[in-house]
Amino acid sequence: MEKHTYGTGLIGNCSYIAHIEKNTNISWLCLPRFDSDFLFGSMLDKEKGGEFTVLPQNGGFTSRQAYKENTNILETSVETSAGEMYKVTDFAPRFLNFDRYFKPTMLVRKIEPLKGEPKIKINCQPVANYGKTKLTPTPGSNHIQFAGRDQQVRLTTNCSITYIMEEQEFRLQRTIYLVLTYGNPMEAPIESTMEKFLNATCQYWRDWVKSTSIPNFYQKLVVRSSLVLKIHQYEDTGGIIAASTSSLPESPGSTRNWDYRYCWMRDAYYTLNVFNHLGHFEELERYFEFIQNLPVDEKGRYQPLYSITGSSKLPETVADLHGYMGNKPVRFGNQAYTHIQNDLYGQVLVSLLPLYADKRFIESEKSHSKPFINNLLQKIEETMDEKDAGLWEFRNLKQEHCYTFLFHWAGASAAVKMADRLSDLEMKNKAVELKNKAIKKIEACYIPERKAYAQAIGTKNMDASTLQLITMGYFGNDIESANNHLKALEEDLLAKDFLFYRYKHLDDFGEPETTFLICAFWYIEALACVNRLEEAMEGFETLSKYCNHLNLFSEDVDQHTGSQWGNFPQTYSHVGLLNAAYRIDKKLDKPNFMI
């Protein structure tokens, strides 16, 4: 079977994200937010999803894509069959203006001739109502107005409006700009304004990268992963989404097609852990505000995921769309919001620990949130004996998951440190008590004959999530016990090329067919933790090839073909890469000229 990779790059400005194919088509763009209806969605339906392309009329061409170095600005270079060339530069404006970040719902396409005067055709056909409605174009003096959405959709350009309206080819003799806006239109001078926006956006991203604490190990991949993660935070509220896409299958025909445009509290923990490594605290502080404003139920309990606005209701619907490569169902919304996943209380506590333990935060910067912390500890106490769906969100199976108890332990440990900072002895005593209870639960998952910890109490199934026992320091300095546990996981779940299955037993949808990339990076990190450093470095290098042409990683990988599957790009996977790189770099502890 041929290797499948996702052929898109993405741009974003912490307000929206767009996916752009190598043929210049914008195949996925939801406006005004990550979780809105799509304006372009051919990723899920070629006929109903609309189109936005800049292509040679005769269709014969080759193309290549690359990011402008250390930015989220994407350049697609096209060579026609006649040997003429042009470049499409796509970007989402983002820069500091009047001491605030300017991040409009505006997508800019700069088209410039590179060789000759190539004949091109611009096709812009946005849609609404999940592909049911094509927007109606109306020409203006220098723009096209598209009717049919709740907000004004406009394409402003210095190109001939007639050529675009009539899908007519024309010679590209000068640089032209296409400015797609949602809401407020762009009414400033086009050429000078867009060049200013492009230069300011480029400078913003390069300054952001320079302000990060990047390890020396595999810097190019680390920089790209950092830039990807950044644009998955919805800056207005601070929420961080798992992925910008929906219903990309975990494997062909599996029906495991989920909408990932939401904020999983678990994913955000891992993401914020990376931002802490990177030295970017504004993202962590925004997320802290997001968490504090999330609704809870009548018992004070959180749910596993929320919308980027903090909405708790995410009803799952099935859309009448063809699906990615014909994979159905196409889902919007996510039923997992109704699940019981008790690991999240500890994850929130661990996520927020830097605000209390890191001396770079002064007292006045830190929210006084004793009731908030106490509520999380209370929920750990109340759920200590409760079965849950676990981090893999089993829809019809509840167990006492080792991973959940690990985060009860980690969260309580974090609360001990918070209590010290807050000089709250009662809180500290409660946290110590819960930490000890969690340890007993984790030990109840132990399988003596395998010298390893199972997925849950009462089962012998192995689960890659328990790799986190090693990476989160549960074994302390006991390298032998950590390595014994790791060997048992390797025996059951390790695939070829350092890829790793989440688990191998049957679940609600059958036996998993693809490996889960975050688990592979957890494995690499675990190898480094048990001082198997050469293996860790080899594994990292091997896994690094499972990206697409722009160093973007998906959720799942088929070990037999090396194909990318699952939603894309997956913040989980990029976080795993970053944490593994940091762990290896720390273990190497060599001058950069020796790495």
What is the compact description of this entry?
The chain has 595 residues and is α+β, with helices and mostly antiparallel strands. The chain contains 14 helices and 30 strands. A hairpin with a 6-residue loop joins strand 6 (61-67) and strand 7 (74-80).
Shape: globular
Number of strands: 30
Helix percent reads 25-40%
Q: What count of helical segments does DSSP give?
A: 14
Domain Trehalase-like N-terminal: 10-158
Organism: Cyclobacterium plantarum
Keywords: Hydrolase
GO molecular function, one term: hydrolase activity
Structural summary, described in words:
The protein has 595 residues and is an alpha+beta fold. The protein is built from 14 helices and 30 strands. The strands form ten sheets. An eight-stranded antiparallel β-sheet has the order 6-7-8-11-19-17-16-15. A four-stranded antiparallel β-sheet has the order 1-2-3-4, with no helix packed on it. A three-stranded antiparallel β-sheet has the order 5-12-18. Strand 29 (556-557) and strand 30 (564-565) form a beta hairpin. The longest helix is centred in the middle third of the chain and has 21 residues, at 190-210. It is globular and about 75 Å long. GO terms for molecular function: hydrolase activity. This is Glycoside hydrolase family 15 protein. Keywords: Hydrolase.
